[in-house]
Amino acid sequence: MPERHARIFLLSHMRAFTSLAGHILGSHPQINGYYEMHISYEDVSALDRQLDVFLKSDALKENSRYLFDKLLHNDYLLIPEQLGLTNIKILISLLEPEHTIKSIVHLFAQKEIEDLYASPVEAANYYIARVKTLADFSRTANQPYYYFDAEMLQRAPEKLLPKLSDWLELDSPLSERYQIFNQTGKAGKGDSSRRIHRGSIDKTRIDYSHIAIPQDALRAAQQAYQECRRQLIGNAADSASLD
């Protein structure tokens, strides 16, 4: 075992199949971690905090190589060059805005206490700010990354997972089937719906047609998505898309 585990970071946004991605990655024998740890990675001490958080509820797999985390909010930064690691694998993904924003609204509208993101306009504002931050990261980070369209996890996993397996240099391929962990479905740990307990990719698309997004907000989100996705693909070391 190396002195310190290498890291995999998934940079994305809420409701972009990131819980599914985390479970698929975290089910691999070489990868530990599957949920969002809510840590900002600005210096080497963050790596110890990440390990501490993981070990509170899980154990490192024997002969494993990686520790995984995902960052979905602008409150949490990743500065790869400050972490002192020679092996960091960065994944970045986006999901198209209309479905994403409606999914955010649907999720937060179910909370007992009124939440900001139950508003389509505020959900759109979050989405726009997040994808722009990811595009900024792609221009300034000195670390190579792999971009993929988040839709591929649900619609074309047979194409995406072999590519991710190669990029991560895994000794066996990622599978469409995944483990159920002790934090699976818990509040604050990602997707809390019954779908994540399935143990395999659910390709059923949820209908959010009852949720309306003001046209100005939707147009702004679509423009941000198109511009930022173009930059993310253009700056990526490699990528996979539905195009």
Shape: globular
Number of helices: 7
How far apart, in Å, are the first and last alpha carbons? 40 Å
Q: Describe the biggest sheet?
A: 6 strands, parallel
Average pLDDT taken over every residue: 95
- Rg, please? 17 Å
Strand order of the largest sheet: 2-3-1-4-5-6
> What is the percent of helical residues?
25-40%
The tally of beta strands, per DSSP, is 6
Low-confidence stretches: none
Please give the structural blueprint.
Elements lengths: L5 E6 L6 H9 L4 E2 L12 H11 L10 E6 L16 E7 L2 H13 L10 H21 L4 E5 L2 H4 L1 H11 L47 H21 L2 E3 L3
Parallel strand pairs: 1-3, 1-4, 2-3, 4-5, 5-6
Helix pairs in contact: 3-4, 4-7
